[in-house]
Design goal:
With 127 residues, the chain is mainly beta. 3% of the residues lie in helices and 46% in strands. The strands form 2 sheets. Strands 2, 4, 5, 6, 9, 10 and 11 form a 7-stranded mixed beta sheet that branches. The protein has a 4-stranded antiparallel beta sheet with strand order 1-3-8-7, with no helix packed on it. A hairpin with a 6-residue loop joins β5 and β6 (58-60). The longest helix has 4 residues, at 105-108. It starts with a strand and ends with a strand.
């Protein structure tokens, strides 16, 4: 079991930055690929960014590419740095962990590839 806890959400104005953090409970955190997804009311959970277990590869949704950066440290935390925020970035952001051995973009962009999820953190961007 892996428990995930997100933090860092909040209310900001358009153009501002936020950094989300996701702390994992398990010491074998480094065996998992990690992803960030977001969801707005009435819509399906949407892939945002992912990073492989080694940190060697990162993947992004087109809508956030060049504005968001996913990273992970050697311990148990994954980050999502969000710059130049737009009102359309408003959503609940979820952190997720995947133990898949096939860590390609096609796999890591799918919510079904992730077995563990955090509770989410709200990000609201005002215009």
């Amino acid at each position: 079991q892996v428990q995930l806890a997100e933090s860092g959400g909040g209310l900001v104005q358009a153009g501002a930055s936020l950094r989300l953090s996701c702390a994992a409970s398990r010491r074998t955190f480094n065996n998992y690929a990690m992803g960030w997804f977001r969801q707005t009311p009435g819509k399906e959970r949407e892939f945002t960014a992912a990073i492989t277990w080694s940190g060697g590869s990162t993947y992004y949704a087109e809508s956030v590419k060049s504005r968001f950066t996913i990273s992970r440290n050697a311990k148990n935390t994954v980050y999502l740095q969000m710059n130049s925020l737009k009102p359309e970035d408003t959503a609940v952001y979820y952190c997720a962990a995947s133990d898949t051995t096939v860590q390609t973009m096609g796999v890591l962009t799918s919510p079904a590839s992730y077995a563990y999820w955090g509770q989410g953190t709200q990000v609201t961007v005002s215009s």
